[in-house]
Give the backbone structure.
Amino acid sequence: MGRILIDPQNIRGLKLRLEGAPAHHILRVLRKKPGDIFEITDGQGRDYEVRLENGAENTLVGAIVREGKEPSHRAQGPSVFQAIPKSQRMDWIIEKAVELGAGTIQPLWTKRSVVIPRSKDMTAKLGRWRRIAGEALAQSGGTRLCAVHAPCSLNEAALQINPSHLTLVAWEKEKSTTLKEVLDRRGIPINIFVGPEGGFAPEEIELLKARGAQTVSLGARTLRSETAPIMILSAILYEQNICPPSPEASAGHPPGSKSDIAPKRSEGG
Ligand code: SAM
């Protein structure tokens, strides 16, 4: 079962109070009854097991019976700078990227972008992308919400590059440096740039390189713009071995690293 994403303000001490869509989901879709346990996350690295105390219509009260916190040493997931592809493909990219642990997603328009978002469409689109990111986090059992930023130009995105990060630009004209070669620098935050259907323009590659980015090949085949980030995120998970069983799991606890101790919070009503 996934985790339901809630606003941390719904937790007071050892009590959860929920209204609206998340409560509806727990009561009507998951059909939880008083005494049943369900899992929630605040999207900020904490997850909880909650025992339903009572629920009616779209309102419920639960008691927190267990709290888990993502280990603080765990690196933030990669930041994906993705040129917005045609039609609804960005929806798919966001869903899959969140499942694969992306930390942030920065939609981009570039010189060769087919899609230049109009600001009047953007509010609705961004709302949908953020909802998809929240649902993908809940479904995949993650605990840290992936931020989906408002689209910006490649030039603006280049200014965001932190030179101490490992910034990779997927470029089909790169013939020597492979993804595998550059992924051995563990623990460094990673940024990934993926171009649109028409690829990056040469001057965009020069700009990104000037900001310290490294171009990488994803192999001899030309991947679709939506396939490339998924391949890179999968390779990062594999290469960095981010998902071994936790020490607790190997000691007999289920993965998800929960403490058996009830949270040390004061009862807040
Ligand atoms: N129009 C370009 C061409 O024909 O060469 C292809 C662009 S591709 C469909 C979209 C994006 O996916 C590229 O900008 C790049 O970021 C990434 N990509 C696809 N295949 C790649 C590969 N083999 N190596 C590196 N990047 C790749």
Q: What stands out?
A: The first helix runs from residue 21 to 29.
